[in-house]
Automatic annotation (TrEMBL):
Subcellular location: Cell membrane
GO cellular component, one term: plasma membrane
Protein name as catalogued: ABC transporter domain-containing protein
Lineage: Bacteria, Bacillati, Actinomycetota, Actinomycetes, Pseudonocardiales
UniProt-listed SUPFAM superfamilies: P-loop containing nucleoside triphosphate hydrolases
Domain ABC transporter: 12-248, 258-502
Keywords carried by this UniProt record: ATP-binding, Cell membrane, Membrane, Nucleotide-binding, Repeat, Sugar transport, Translocase, Transport
Organism superkingdom: Bacteria
Subcellular location, principal: membrane
Record-linked PANTHER family: CARBOHYDRATE TRANSPORT ATP-BINDING PROTEIN MG119-RELATED, D-ALLOSE IMPORT ATP-BINDING PROTEIN ALSA-RELATED
Length: 505
């Protein structure tokens, strides 16, 4: 049971902390309180300093100046283990599981229950994991390896791991980015229970509807500095956005009206046993078509089969009337198709390679001369596309892993746009990126459609689906169950269809 701390003093206070890396000031003089029994949102664009604050609280970094105060006493965490021992748990945006260990072993990592002879008590490990998942209201095979789990399931395991540590301060860094509506509701129910037990929650999200639903207080950061801390009821979403970006933001969904052209992509009768079946649709030049539905409905698996990453048991894919060979991404790329995957770290980028090398990977053959790649050509192409996407970086030779999440997403987009695709498939194009970068990505998608590119988008964010799509194809249990034109698409119509309600008719 979490310790009660109902008094007015903060459970933890960030006091005038600063942190620099070389000449770059990541955080400068930031202060805010975190109260027991309260959920506190920390918001700002990518690069605002949120991740640095999280890492200082987690014991990864020490502040250069300033103090962290826990229960009224200054603390100096020299390691993540010290922070965890003090009752601070972090659920990071990107999962940090051990892929070859079981789900249950991941949950108890670092605190294995042991029997009388000092051996790991396997039964106790299983019992704890099963109890935590029961508390979360989800079913996951606790004996299976973490490798191969979906992003949604990895996040659930991370949440269970944090809850198992009985944290007094739970820091949630984009925990819902890949969760379904039902899973988000379950998570928020658990968060409410933890607050009632006296826990403090720091919640980082780019989804304003989640912030207003869960949090009682919000701190805004911009360019490493504290802008404001206010009760959530005192701020509108528009005011939060203005404080985050320091200006009035253009429309988040800058959709250009485009008259669709000829059919570019045709999918007919696509099927994969146990995953999806009878998938048929088309996308025209200049059209943005969204695949909507709950996580696990089969949307991502469909687009991966269309691109050839996954095998299919039946059906055909045609691009400009030419049938593509099944299971061959190379054939899809050669025909003019590009896929921006959901998991940018595992599937979209080689994190240790440079920005310029990542951008040019799909075109390395075209850029090579006599079988060799020359830096000048790579650099020119990389600079052209990173500048078009307004990517922030130090040098093009820097490892792509050094960039913020939003800028990594821009590099993935640059990598595929450099191939001059006729069909662009984007799977969760704005997952885990800030509101300013979302607007840039949406503006780019709209501009590409205006240039005649056929865009197929998978998104779990209903505002994004409704704001950007010309047509919405709703997927449920591996089948397309509704096709809704833009003029008729509403949150209710899409969700009724996704959940199989009669009102969808």
């Amino acid at each position: 049971m979490m310790r009660q701390n109902p008094g007015p003093a903060p459970l933890l206070e960030v006091r005038d902390v600063s942190k620099s890396f070389g000449a770059v000031a990541a955080v400068a003089g930031v202060s805010f309180p975190l109260y027991a029994g309260e959920a506190h949102a920390l918001v700002g664009e990518n690069g605002a300093g949120k991740s640095t604050i999280v890492k200082m609280l987690a014991g990864v970094h020490r502040p250069d100046t300033g103090t962290l105060v826990l229960d009224g006493a200054p603390v100096d965490f020299g390691s993540p283990a010290e922070a965890r021992a003090a009752g601070i748990a972090v659920i990071y945006q990107e999962p940090t599981l051990f892929p070859d260990l079981s789900v249950a072993e991941n949950i108890v990592m670092g605190r294995h229950p042991r029997g009388r002879l000092g051996m790991i008590d396997r039964a106790a490990v299983r019992a704890e994991a099963e109890g935590l998942f029961s508390r979360l209201g989800v079913r996951i095979d606790i004996e299976r390896p973490a490798r191969g789990l979906s992003i949604a399931d990895q996040q659930i395991v991370e949440i269970a791991k944090a809850l198992g540590a009985d944290a007094r301060l739970l820091i949630m860094d984009e925990p819902t980015a890949a969760l379904s509506l039902v899973e988000v509701e379950r998570l928020f129910t658990v968060a409410g229970t933890l607050r009632e037990e006296g826990a403090a929650i720091m919640f980082i999200s780019h989804r304003f509807e989640e912030i207003t639903a869960l949090c009682q207080r919000v701190t805004v950061m911009r360019d490493g500095r504290h802008v404001s801390t206010d009760p959530i009821d005192d701020l509108t979403v528009e005011e939060m956005v203005r404080r985050m970006v320091g200006r009035d933001l253009d429309a988040l969904f800058p959709k250009q009206e485009v008259e669709p052209g000829a059919v570019v992509l045709e999918v007919e009768g696509l099927a994969r046993q146990g995953v999806f079946r009878d998938i048929s649709f088309s996308v025209r030049a200049g059209e943005i078509v969204a695949l909507a539905g709950l996580v696990g409905s089969g949307r991502s698996e469909v687009v991966q089969a269309v691109f050839g990453v996954d095998e299919r048991d039946a059906g055909s894919v045609r691009l400009n009337g030419k049938r593509l060979r099944a299971g061959s991404p190379k054939a899809a790329m050669a025909a003019g198709m590009a896929l921006v995957p959901e998991d940018r770290r595992q599937q979209g980028l080689l994190m240790d390679l440079s920005i310029e090398r990542n951008v040019n990977l799909p075109r390395s053959g075209a850029l090579a001369r006599l079988g060799f790649l020359f830096g000048g050509g790579e650099r020119r192409e990389a600079r052209r596309w990173t500048e078009r996407l307004r990517t922030r970086y130090g040098r093009l030779t820097d490892a792509v892993g050094t960039l913020s999440g939003g800028n990594q997403q821009k590099v993935v987009l640059a990598k595929w746009l450099a191939t001059d695709p006729r069909v662009l498939i984007v799977d969760e194009p704005t997952r885990g990126i800030d509101v300013g970068t979302k607007a840039e990505v949406h503006r780019l998608m709209s501009a590409l459609a205006a240039e005649g590119v056929a865009v197929l988008m998978v998104s779990s964010e209903l505002p994004e689906v409704l704001g950007m799509a010309d047509r919405v194809l709703v997927v449920r249990e591996g089948r397309i169950v509704a096709e809704i034109p833009r003029a008729e698409a509403t949150e209710d119509s899409v969700m009724f269809a996704a959940m199989g309600q009669e009102a969808a008719a």
